[in-house]
């Protein structure tokens, strides 16, 4: 109650939505409003969710670890790795190992 009286009661809204005329006295309310009302606009903008870019091919990633994983493989023409027990094909040996362990239950 004291927070309300000190910061909000009788005060004009200090936070504004950048997409519409919505205003609030709390930043959290603005963030929630944007997430609910303007989610479609945020999804249209690739820059809003993709913060990491591969320096080689300029592909955008939301997570740094995904970009680093991609960067290690970017531009390489790698031979495909085939599963000896089925028709599964992988580009990385780790993916083939996971496939064999989970599909054919070999440890």
Could you explain the architecture of this structure?
The chain is mainly alpha-helical. Helices cover 46% and strands 11% of the residues. It is built from 6 helices and 6 strands; from the N terminus they run H-E-E-H-H-H-E-E-H-E-E-H. The strands form 3 sheets. It has a two-stranded antiparallel ribbon. A two-stranded antiparallel ribbon has the order 3-4. A two-stranded antiparallel sheet has the order 5-6. A hairpin with a 6-residue loop joins strand 3 and strand 4. It is elongated. The mean pLDDT is 78.
In short:
By secondary structure, this protein is mainly alpha-helical. The chain has helices spanning 2-8, 27-37, 39-44, 46-49, 64-73, 93-103, and strands at 15-16, 23-24, 52-53, 60-61, 81-82, 89-90. The protein is 46% helix and 11% strand.
Write the layout of secondary structure elements.
Elements: H1 2-8, E1 15-16, E2 23-24, H2 27-37, H3 39-44, H4 46-49, E3 52-53, E4 60-61, H5 64-73, E5 81-82, E6 89-90, H6 93-103
Antiparallel strand pairs: 1-2, 3-4, 5-6
Q: What topology, given as strand order, has the largest sheet?
A: 1-2
- Number of helical segments? 6
**Low-confidence regions:** none
Shape: elongated
Beta-strand proportion: 5-15%
**What Rg do the Cα atoms give?**
24 Å
Please tally the β strands and state the result. Answer: 6
Which structural class should the secondary elements be placed in?
Answer: mainly alpha
H/E series, N to C? Answer: HEEHHHEEHEEH
- State the end-to-end distance: 60 Å
What composes the largest sheet? 2 strands, antiparallel
Approximate helicity band: 40-55%
Quote the average pLDDT. Answer: 78
């Amino acid at each position: 109650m004291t927070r309300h009286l000190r910061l909000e009661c009788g005060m004009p809204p200090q936070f504004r939505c950048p997409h519409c005329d919505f205003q609030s006295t709390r930043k959290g309310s603005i963030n929630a409003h944007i997430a609910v009302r303007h989610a479609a606009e945020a999804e249209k903008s690739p820059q809003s969710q993709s913060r990491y870019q591969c320096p080689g091919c300029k592909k955008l990633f939301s997570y740094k670890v995904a970009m680093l994983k991609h960067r290690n493989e970017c531009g390489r023409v790698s031979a495909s790795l085939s599963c000896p027990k089925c028709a599964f094909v992988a580009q990385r040996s780790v993916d083939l190992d996971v496939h064999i362990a989970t599909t054919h239950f070999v440890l």
